[in-house]
Specification:
- There is one protein chain.
- Helix content is 29%, strand content 24%.
- With 340 residues, the chain is of the alpha/beta class.
- A hairpin with a 5-residue loop joins strand 13 and strand 14.
- Helix 1 packs antiparallel against helix 3 and helix 7 runs parallel beside helix 8.
- The longest helix has 15 residues.
- The radius of gyration is 21 Å and the shape is elongated.
Length: 340
């Protein structure tokens, strides 16, 4: 599967990071409410059968069952039971493993504490001096200090549409350089991301590989499937591109960064991405509760696993909390200086 387009998408804001979990709903029948043994065993078995990163993360899943099952069965109510489950799943360090309550609210099992090299308040100060067109939250385009600048805050149509991006890019067709900022982008619809990347691909490019779990053993996977980005639109931008990235970049945004990074005219700058990609499926628990399970491993074109490792920039640009407290964005300052 290449896209989240037809799947349920849940946006979870965790410490400012937008984690996008998308996947098909499992037909598995929920277990009886209050039967904590059945709930635990169903969830544990589903992860054992479906989860893709046990070997990569060196997780002893049998040991997790031994440790957490007695505590889960001793829970006094569903809330206490869920707390034990979240604690167990936190060991996976997987942003795509979520629990949702009956209202649909998503509860993270893992919340990273990495420093993020983007600050919304400071960013808003920068774009306030630009000729700025707003597309959506943290998204838009304009001319900043004489440089064409795009901010793509998330891969969903409430933030960016291909028609709007195409019209904006047309304005800067002859610009020698542009800056694209995705430091605030936690993912979304990878088909949309690849459509934008297609405006920078003169030929079809290899954007990496994915492998899905396909058997009972934790090492059972299908053959790698190549992910590609094809040229889109009447022309492709071939001037210099400075693509800004950092620790908030996750999921399909990392796929976008990988695809863009294959182009010789694109410079990836900022900080390493968070490393979170899973194409999760959604499964029933009990009493309206559900959970998500990562089902694939995504690789770069060089066969580097993205999960936990992230994508390394071509140019590391240092930024600190002190910079943002002083109203400075050193990553954006660097890019604007390079593009002028």
């Amino acid at each position: 599967m290449k896209s989240c387009k037809t799947l349920a998408i849940a946006l979870l804001v965790t410490g400012g990071l937008i984690v996008v979990a998308c996947g098909s709903k499992s037909p598995t029948a929920p277990t009886p409410a209050g039967d904590f043994a059945s709930q635990f065993d169903s969830l544990w078995s589903t992860f054992d059968r479906e989860y893709s990163y046990f070997e990569h993360k060196r997780i002893d899943w049998n040991a997790m069952r031994t440790t957490y099952r007695p505590r889960a069965l001793a829970a006094g109510d569903q809330t206490a039971f869920i707390a034990v489950i979240r604690e167990m799943l936190a060991n996976l360090h997987d942003l795509h493993v979520l629990i949702r309550d009956p209202s649909g609210a998503a509860l993270p099992t893992y919340q990273p504490t990495d420093f993020v090299n983007w600050d919304r308040a400071v960013w808003q100060q920068y774009v306030s001096r630009a000729q700025w067109t707003v597309w959506g939250t943290d998204s838009g385009f304009g001319v900043l200090d004489g440089v064409p600048y795009f901010a793509l805050g998330g891969w969903d149509t409430s933030r960016v549409r291909t028609a709007d991006f195409d019209a904006a890019l047309e304005r800067f067709r002859n610009a020698p350089a542009i800056v694209i900022d995705v430091r605030m982008n936690g993912g979304g619809n990878d088909a949309l991301a690849f459509e934008v990347a297609g405006r920078f691909a003169p030929t079809t490019i290899n954007a990496g590989y994915v492998k899905f779990r396909n058997g009972p053993a934790h090492t059972d996977f299908g053959s790698p499937t190549t992910r590609t980005v094809s040229p889109r639109g009447p022309w492709q931008y071939t001037g210099r591109v400075y693509l800004l990235m950092g620790k908030r970049c996750a999921s399909s945004n990392e796929s976008f960064i990988v695809a863009m990074g294959t182009r010789p005219n694109v410079t990836l700058a900022g900080d390493r991405t968070i490393g979170a990609t899973g194409n999760p499926g959604t499964f029933n628990l009990a009493n309206g509760w559900t959970y998500t399970v990562s089902r694939w491993i995504e690789y770069t074109p060089e066969n580097q696993v993205i999960e936990d490792n992230g994508i390394t920039p071509d140019v590391f640009v240092a930024a600190s909390a002190a910079d943002f407290a002083a109203g400075r964005d050193p990553v954006l300052d660097w890019a604007l200086g390079q593009a002028r």
